């Protein structure tokens, strides 16, 4: 089902035949729909009642200023493609996205495509973690990568799809990309420490690894939100998994140092269980 333009609005920018940037009652909006931009020019009036596929509103003044700045230097075809991708993402998720994605994803695409054109691919250190923790977002990002490849003719590697997935995750969580990167960075640091400390190689594709990442992520969220978990098995875990508990205490120190938080003993004990499982399956 489409959306309807509620009031007459003026065309600010025609990105392509499917994407218009308009002003409606002093609010900036992006209209997406097949053919709505055909023959349109700046200053034209879009009449109320027009049915379109998507309407995105940019209400925050800072976001509006950043989007207008983006339009001054970015290829309008890239902006149009980004908006088509955002519409696809919104359709796939069937939910509202944070308006910052109109700036952050487009800006990322501009520089990512420039790097790829110059054969300067940037390695994504969090690719496996992103694919594991945010599978839904990553699957959608792969669709976005195919859209880019079809439109631009440049192959988009999985690492770039991983970056797009983070932007999607951020847009689903009110722009909280910094926390997402933070979780991934801490998780990656802990995993590398465990491999060195226990002389093991952890299978990044295993279910146990996925469980471990998920545990770390939610443990960090609990600690940051001051929502401690109770563990009545601390004594038993210390006794049964003595070595893994010692390693868990060291891993907890990494989390504490990087996030400036205290990891309580209950969390350390649960961490020890996951470390023991990783140790068993990695030997």
Q: Can you walk through the features of this model?
A:
The protein is built from eleven helices and seven strands. The chain has helices at residues 61-73, 76-93, 101-117, 127-133, 135-152, 158-172, 177-198, 207-224, 234-240, 242-259, 265-282; strands at 3-4, 9-16, 19-24, 27-32, 45-46, 51-52, 54-58. Among the domains are: 1-59, Transcription Regulation, Sacy, Chain A; 177-282, PTS-regulatory domain, PRD, CATH 1.10.1790.10. Helix content is 60%, strand content 11%. By secondary structure, it is of the alpha+beta class. A hairpin with a 2-residue loop joins strand 2 and strand 3. The longest helix has 22 residues, at 177-198. The model has no long low-confidence stretch (mean pLDDT 88). The strands form two sheets. Strands 5-2-3-4-7 form a five-stranded antiparallel beta sheet. A two-stranded antiparallel ribbon has the order 1-6.
Summarize the structure.
Helix content is 60%, strand content 11%. It is α+β, with helices and mostly antiparallel strands and 283 residues long.
